[in-house]
Design brief:
The protein is an alpha/beta fold. It is about 50% helix and about 10% strand. The longest helix has 19 residues.
Length: about 425
């Protein structure tokens, strides 16, 4: 974990000389100076919309900007430590950067800390305002984002992260992994207290942010921030992404098992602001190639899948593998059980966790292919209802995972 004492002396002296600020805004995405100047201007515009202006420190990874006028409520600070030092571990890099920002916010007595990871093309004044205002003016502890995006974007969140989080912890959070969040001082203090060199055993990833807030009773809301631009997806190379995202997510399932096993159903979480229309659909996806990848995985990964999936699920997958692209459809109930079974397999450590998660790739591609085939024949407005049906299937299957979690050897349909 990065603390204030770990920050280079020049930056630390600048921070200490600022005195008290009310808002720390961190831009973790790399950006050219002109793009950063646009973000700073957007921050000024956002602050001006608040009930009363707040003194703000905007920290970023780029080069230092010119000195601001004395009356400017926004001060900027180049913070090179936020740049990614581990090219092979982006998830841990983001977590470390969050800790550094939290340490700065705590040292300055900030009432709110807003961290934005999305690229600077996405960041608008509304984006900043939507994440900061609920903390500063409405007394929420955590603000999670609601993004608008193309139908084929953000599918790992739509298919696994969001419905799993909703079913387990009972809160309907659209993007529980952010990565753009607003935090209260209370939430910052709690996050710092949970890091290893402050008494906690293991580092906590972003997968724990929303989950911890739910389990510990913090006040949570969601904010419509705008259209998020996702990088192009290499659909045939998703194994590393699945391991990086689902590993921490499944670890949180283990950490909070005693809590989520008591929860039934789900409750809405307040959403602030109106959604912004999404971009036009991205380039078409090669669905046939995805189905072929699933069929190849079905032939080659039976040994691994057989370790975590019960015979009934393996039988259904065998039937699915024989379908033509025109017939291809993965039922929501089947997909929900597959995710629950892999979460249990991750907990039991029957094989290497990384190996296990990578073996999910053909199954994930099968779900994406099924979803895309279905979504092209329904109205654009019906896609949200389609994802709601999937989330309800995760909730309906929850007794299955509770039973398997408690008695993994006895309950194997």
């Amino acid at each position: 974990m990065i603390e204030l004492a770990d920050i280079p002396q020049q930056a630390r002296e600048r921070i200490e000389g600022l005195g008290k600020v009310e808002l720390v805004l961190a831009i973790l995405s790399s950006s050219a100076p002109e793009a950063l100047e646009t973000v700073v201007a957007g921050a000024r515009e956002s602050i001006a919309k608040l009930y009363s202006p707040v003194r703000t420190l905007l920290i970023h990874t780029g080069e230092s900007l010119g000195a601001a006028p004395a009356e400017d409520p926004v001060r900027t600070l180049a913070f090179p430590m936020l740049a990614s030092p581990r090219p092979g571990d982006p998830v841990q890099n983001i977590s470390d950067a969050y800790d550094a920002v939290f340490s700065v916010g705590e040292s300055l007595g900030a009432r709110a800390v807003v961290v934005i990871v999305s690229d600077t093309e996405s960041i608008t004044p509304q984006w900043i305002y939507a994440l900061a205002r609920p903390v500063l003016e409405l007394d929420f502890d955590l603000v999670t984002p609601c993004y608008s995006h193309a139908r084929s974007a953000g599918l790992l969140n739509s298919s696994i992260v969001s419905p799993l989080t909703r079913a387990l912890y009972g809160k309907r959070i659209q993007h529980p992994l952010g990565p753009d969040f607003g935090f209260s001082a209370r939430m910052v203090e709690r996050r710092l207290a949970m890091q290893p060199n402050r008494g906690h055993t293991h580092p906590r990833s972003l997968a724990s942010v929303a989950v911890d807030a739910v389990c510990e009773g913090f006040e949570i809301c969601q904010a419509n921030v705008g259209v998020r631009h996702y990088p192009a997806t290499d659909w045939m190379n998703q194994s590393s992404v699945l391991a990086q995202i689902l590993g921490p997510l499944f670890q949180e399932c283990e950490h909070h098992a005693s809590h989520w096993q008591r929860i039934r159903g789900s409750q809405p979480v307040p959403v602030i602001g109106q959604p912004i229309p999404a971009d036009a659909e991205a380039e078409p996806i090669d669905i046939r190639r995805m189905i072929e990848s699933f069929q190849l995985g079905h032939r080659n990964l039976q040994e691994i899948w057989g370790v975590v999936l019960p015979p009934g699920t393996l039988l259904e997958l065998s039937k699915l593998a024989r379908l033509t692209p025109e017939q291809f459809h993965m039922p929501d109930r089947l997909w929900a059980r597959i995710i629950y079974d892999f979460a249990l397999g991750h907990r039991l450590r029957l094989i290497s966790p990384d190996h296990l998660l990578r073996a999910m790739t053909p199954l994930y591609l099968a779900w994406v292919a099924s979803f895309m085939l279905e979504s092209v024949i329904i109205e654009p407005g019906a896609v949200a209802q389609r994802l709601e049906d999937l989330a309800l299937a995760f909730e309906a299957a929850k007794p299955y995972v509770v039973s398997r979690w408690r008695w993994p050897d006895r309950f194997n349909p």
